[in-house]
């Protein structure tokens, strides 16, 4: 090494970096002649060769020629870009700048190598953790009615004097909720329930009847020992003008129902109720809560044609492993009703604001809050960017198969592009079904929503982008089916971190996971918070376990 250093000090040599295109064009012998000095027949030492070479005018002319060639090459090519750093650095003439560049690149390589030891998003452990189901703590469906309830049922189902008519409105999940409460109200009044009338939806324009969407024979059979279900009024009552009640207050008790309606229905024989959404209290006696669960999870089964196609699409999603279902609330009417903005562009935001000014009656959110206040309060649907960041933070693998449920998002494919770029395996019913399979359900929004419900309920993991009737119904259904994984986005607490662009990704992911570690579908007591719906939280009234070995 000392000799080499002396050589460099005695006579500095020039080293050049040659583009890889030139190197590749040379033959092995030509390349060898450039890298290795030609052998001489004399017996001089290594130093002698350098000494005589440096004195030779031909060597100097050749060096000048190469120097000019390199200068011309640098005009046409950025050699530093093509060859970031020489694999054979000059041990004598390494400048400080080059040394720094090499050191920086070395540090980057070391950092990358260290990162290889960290569990990546798509590592087997991360993937397994994402698909892992919550601990159901041994809870199972438990609909054991009391002896008093069963004795009353024997008398009630034989009664032919009282009939309850109901008209339910809204989307399919909202209609389901009202049908559940209609059965319970009929039970409270000791009346038979005429098959509910589905009001034409003003937004969807769907004129489907109960038997088009639900299995009517199954509905009657399951509830045969609880409430008598009839398809129409009998001839003895068909000419009776029903007493119509339009102003039922919110969250009324069974006592209020009896005091308000029992005398009327006993006198007139028929009672007509409309707009049952959230009219019946969420806190009812145990037997009536069990009846709610029985209607929601057992009696309300979709019609055979819908169930067949829904199960078929679910099987297609399951054919290649587990899948995630997303309920994306990104339709135009959702943005209008919630008072939120889609964030796609100024044009789309202005479109929503204009529609809201034109039809203020559609706004169901608090009108005294600004968009930003609603957003930070967790009252707005997540857009595709936020859904994508949340899924990545929770460890969803890039290879995850995703079924997205919901109507056409405002902005079409553009609105979903942040999601599809990060997760390329994204499908909906139009992607999975053959054209002729969906044709019978064309322009039937309730049918399409029912198919979404079936595929979502059967998924391995489910996550809604916004609260709503469908999300709540699926949450309860998945809990009743054994507490299958259900991610509830903690929007109010997580969004401030979404706005912090300086936070390292690893720290962001850690915080998001921590915020959601108890929001993955684990059993939750309905009674732990006031006003919870038993069809969303079926524990403890509708599910039971070994109380000695499990507790919440």
Number of DSSP strands? 13
What's the gyration radius in Å? 36 Å
What's the end-to-end separation, in Å? Answer: 73 Å
What share of the residues lie within helices?
A: 40-55%
- Classify the beta-strand content into a percent band: 5-15%
Q: So how many helices?
A: 26
Give start-end ranges of low-pLDDT stretches.
1-54, 73-119
The shape is elongated
Coarse structural class = alpha/beta
- Integer average pLDDT: 81
Please characterize this protein's 3D structure.
The chain is of the alpha/beta class and 552 residues long. Helix content is 48%, strand content 8%. The strands form three sheets. Strands 2, 3, 4, 5, 6 and 7 form a six-stranded parallel sheet that branches. β6 (243-245), α13 and β7 (270-274) form a beta-alpha-beta unit. It starts with a helix and ends in an 8-residue tail after the last strand. It comes from Gossypium stocksii. Pathway: Glycan metabolism. One of its GO terms (molecular function) is glycosyltransferase activity.
Structure described in brief:
By secondary structure, the protein is α/β, with parallel strands linked by helices. It has helices at residues 2-10, 20-25, 28-35, 46-55, 57-76, 79-82, 96-115, 124-131, 147-156, 172-189, 210-213, 216-222, 254-268, 286-299, 304-318, 332-338, 346-358, 371-376, 384-393, 413-422, 429-432, 435-438, 445-457, 469-480, 491-498, 505-516; strands at 140-141, 163-168, 192-194, 197-198, 229-230, 243-245, 270-274, 323-327, 401-405, 426-427, 461-464, 485-486, 543-544.
């Amino acid at each position: 090494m000392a000799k080499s250093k002396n050589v460099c000090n005695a006579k500095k040599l020039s080293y050049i970096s040659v583009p890889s295109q030139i190197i590749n064009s040379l033959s092995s012998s030509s390349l060898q002649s450039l890298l290795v000095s030609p052998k001489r027949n004399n017996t001089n030492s290594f130093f002698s060769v350098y000494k005589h070479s440096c004195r030779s005018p031909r060597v100097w002319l050749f060096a000048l020629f190469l120097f000019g060639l390199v200068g011309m090459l640098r005009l046409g090519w950025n050699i530093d870009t093509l060859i970031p750093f020489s694999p054979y650095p000059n041990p004598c003439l390494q400048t400080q700048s080059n040394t720094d560049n090499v050191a920086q690149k070395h540090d980057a390589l070391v950092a990358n190598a260290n990162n290889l030891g960290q569990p990546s998003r798509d590592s087997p452990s991360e993937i397994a953790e994402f698909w892992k189901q919550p601990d159901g703590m041994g809870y199972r469906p438990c609909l054991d009615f009391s002896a008093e309830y069963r004795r009353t049922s024997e008398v009630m189902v034989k009664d032919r004097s009282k009939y309850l008519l109901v008209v339910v409105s809204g989307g399919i999940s909202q209609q389901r909720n009202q049908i559940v409460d209609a059965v319970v109200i009929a039970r409270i009044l000791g009346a038979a329930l005429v098959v509910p009338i589905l009001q034409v939806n003003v937004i969807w324009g769907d004129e489907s009847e109960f038997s088009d969407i639900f299995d009517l024979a199954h509905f009657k059979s399951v509830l045969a020992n609880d409430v008598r279900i009839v398809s129409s009024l009998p001839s003895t009552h068909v000419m009776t003008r029903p007493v119509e009640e339009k102003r039922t207050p919110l969250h009324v008790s069974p006592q209020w129902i009896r005091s308000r309606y029992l005398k009327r229905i006993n006198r007139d024989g028929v009672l007509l109720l409309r707009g049952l959404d959230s009219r019946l209290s969420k806190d009812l006696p145990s037997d009536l809560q069990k009846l709610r669960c029985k209607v929601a999870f057992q009696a309300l089964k979709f019609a055979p044609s819908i169930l067949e196609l829904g199960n078929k699409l679910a099987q297609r999603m399951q054919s290649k492993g587990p899948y995630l279902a997303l309920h994306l609330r990104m339709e135009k009417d959702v943005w209008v009703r919630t008072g939120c903005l889609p964030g796609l562009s100024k044009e789309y935001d202005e479109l929503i604001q204009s529609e809201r000014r034109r039809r203020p009656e559609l706004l169901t959110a608090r009108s005294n809050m600004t968009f930003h206040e609603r957003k930070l309060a967790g009252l707005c649907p997540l857009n595709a960017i936020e859904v994508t960041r949340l899924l990545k933070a929770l460890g969803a693998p890039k290879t995850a198969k995703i079924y997205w449920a919901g109507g056409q998002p405002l902005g079409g494919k553009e609105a979903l592009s942040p999601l599809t770029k990060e997760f390329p395996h994204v499908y909906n019913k139009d992607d999975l079904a053959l054209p002729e399979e969906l044709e019978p359900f064309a322009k039937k929004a309730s049918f399409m929503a029912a198919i979404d419900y079936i595929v979502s309920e059967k998924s391995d993991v489910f996550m809604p982008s916004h609260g709503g009737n469908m999300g709540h119904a699926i949450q309860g259904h998945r809990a009743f089916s054994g507490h299958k994984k259900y991610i509830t986005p903690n929007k109010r607490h997580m969004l401030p971190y979404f706005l912090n662009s300086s936070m390292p990704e690893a720290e962001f992911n850690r915080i998001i996971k921590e915020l959601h570690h108890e929001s993955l579908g684990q059993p939750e007591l309905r009674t732990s918070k006031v006003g919870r719906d038993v069809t969303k939280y079926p524990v403890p009234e509708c599910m039971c376990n070994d109380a000695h070995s499990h507790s919440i």
